[in-house]
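Tutorial sheet, problem 5. The two components below are modelled jointly, 573 residues in total.
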Amino acid sequence: MAKSRKTSFPKTPTGINGLDEITNGGFPKGRPILICGSAGCGKTLFAMQFLVKGITDYNEPGVFMSFEETSEDLTQNVNSLGFDLDKLKSENKLRVDHVRIERSEIEETGEYDLEALFIRLNHAIDSVGAKRVVLDTIESLFGGMDNEAVLRSELRRLFHWLKEKGVTAIITGERGENTLTRQGLEEYISDCVILLDFRVIDQIATRRLRIVKYRGSTHGTNEYPFLIDEDGISVIPVTSLKLDYKSSPEIISTGIPDLDKSFSKGGIYRGGSTLITGTAGTTKTILAAHFAASSCKRKEQVLYFSFEESPDQLTRNIATIGINFKPMIKSGLLHIHASRPSLQGLEMHLLVINKLMESLKPRTVIVDPISSLITIGSSSEVRGMLIRLMDTLKMNRINAIFTSLTHSGISEYNDATVDAVSSLADTWINLTNEQQKGDDRVRSLLIVKSRGMGHHNSKQQFIITNKGLQFIKQKAR
Amino acid sequence: MAKDQTWELRLYIAGQTPKSILALNNITKYCQEHLDGCYTIEVVDLLKNPQLAEGDQIFAIPTLVRKLPVPIRKIIGDLSNKEKVLVGLNIRPVTV
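Model answer (structure tokens):
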């Protein structure tokens, strides 16, 4: 971020991948933050990661005050994410205090306040020098005590006190019927409110996060999908909200000499995205394979996502047109990642793609075909995912090739996936395989668009030979 | 109520606040009236010993804890309702 940009108030990193970008730098430092959501949406984990990462990455000790789970349960539950609470406790950087309120053994008579809770919290904070605090879930108090008026005024006092204490505090709350939290905590904590959601659509579950409110700060307003995996929570993807990537003037080959000539610059821009559409059997994969081969020829890493064919089958089939993937795979230039689209939700796919991109650092990414992703999400979701994927690719100046299956009968211009991607793509190539007079089928290729350069404007017929795709020289008219 | 039983009570306070003083006066009075010397009242000031709050799971002030006889019972508040305190501590059976 540019230094000249003013930040209205100090922020503290959230420790959650991707969230700092969305919140423009993190949580408001020294203020309470409300995290709400229904049961099982990941509130506790979210809060725990904020605390643990605060200790391990930012050297800010923390206090976890739990009103639900015992310290032992918590330790066990987050162990699978690689958080070792016992170690942090022994290093005196973390305090976990379990506040157990047993309704059956408590009687109320006369006036009281929650001073003891303040004292406990204060003691815990001071004993480790905590900068971060989690109260999970403070609403449990309402189940344990009758005097709501006292509770409410005491909670108000507590949040004030936390502010004065200068700790950044996460307060979790269970989602209510018509309110963000059952007890309306959002009335008291209004600086920063984040809503977590867990939805199952068509049997595929997606977790989402939305910043409901962030006083005095700009923030992303969308619902962002997030994941819980062995590395904890990541809000994905890690992209900025801006369109400010650098564009390269460099031209690269598509791998097909004839096709290169159809572009006025003799190829396509590096770091651009190319969409290849066509009905079944129009050689989309072959075109994609040419791209892959040309990238390998330049000694540039290719990451090939195959959603329909296994690496072996793809290699075998492509060999028949004179492209041999085997040595490319062997030399590590080509990495084929094959999986079924329905194996996981869209976000998981995106995460896998992101993770592979991070580890392999490819210069070219091929997704064949993106249309199969639509089977697992609505077109708006697919579009959202693809925008984010393309953003990431563009930021890293990776050449992107997407193939997309269109259905015969429907014009490719109204196809759902194409509709989602075509406006994002820099180059759009449409392939057809039409029946002409007689029994002959004629394959043809049309460059629908190519941003930033001129291109051949009519359908060009081609054939597939054992040396790959070749244009048929048309008779001069 | 068994006469030979010892009642071990602990009152948690945070400084000499009116509520805490009232609670201490109340419980002392009830014990004198009903427990006939067979009791101890320990007063814990959490401002002086904050680390003690966790052990007895104290979150409200004042809180009276009956350590003995078991099971542990807790009464939060200034203990102004005598009937409720006696029932809560099981000093006097509900049916009298």
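Marking note: Chain A touches chain B at residues 97, 99-102, 105-117, 119-120, 122-123, 141, 145 (CB under 8 Å). Full credit if you identified this.
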